[in-house]
Design brief:
Layout: E1 3-7, H1 12-23, E2 33-40, H2 47-50, H3 54-78, E3 83-89, H4 92-103, E4 107-111, H5 125-133, E5 138-141
Parallel strand pairs: 1-2, 1-4, 2-3, 4-5
């Protein structure tokens, strides 16, 4: 079965990545195995983490991740796609590539820009780094 990892961050570009999969479902002989991924930037290692309960921090990462995945999950469910959601913490590009490798994904699907990208930039920094690091095909939605 063909496996697709969709990296989402709540941006309009990542929403279009989900819409791209839905719009091109006919590309696949059978429904692909879809994995939604949200990568949360870690809090700085310094003073802040020392004063936050570990369980509270884990809950924050989970709740924020679920909120960011909600729109994409709704779009996929409405289109009849089965999917699994994943929430990770770390440097976004490296985590996206590692998760795609760990899951054995055949394709990484993501937006050209994330939430923090400058509109004038051709590609966002995370997208550019995923293209550099990944040995897997990457499909960009803009």
């Amino acid at each position: 079965m063909f496996k697709v990892l969709i990296a989402v961050d709540g941006s309009s570009c990542s929403e279009r990545a989900v819409d791209t999969l839905v719009a091109h479902a006919a590309w696949f002989r059978e429904a692909p195995e879809v994995h939604l991924l949200f990568v949360h930037a870690p809090l700085p290692v310094g003073g802040v983490q020392q004063h936050i309960d570990r369980k509270a921090l884990e809950n924050y990462y989970r709740e924020e991740g679920e909120a960011q995945l909600a729109g994409a999950a709704r779009r996929l469910a409405d289109a009849g796609f089965a999917f699994q959601s994943h929430i990770h913490v770390g440097p976004a590009a490296e985590v996206i590539v590692r998760v795609a490798d760990d899951l054995g994904c055949d394709l990484i699907l993501m937006g050209t820009h994330g939430r923090g990208a400058l509109p004038a930039a051709l590609l966002g920094s995370v997208t550019r780094k995923v293209l550099h690091l990944s040995s897997r095909p990457v499909l960009l939605a803009k």
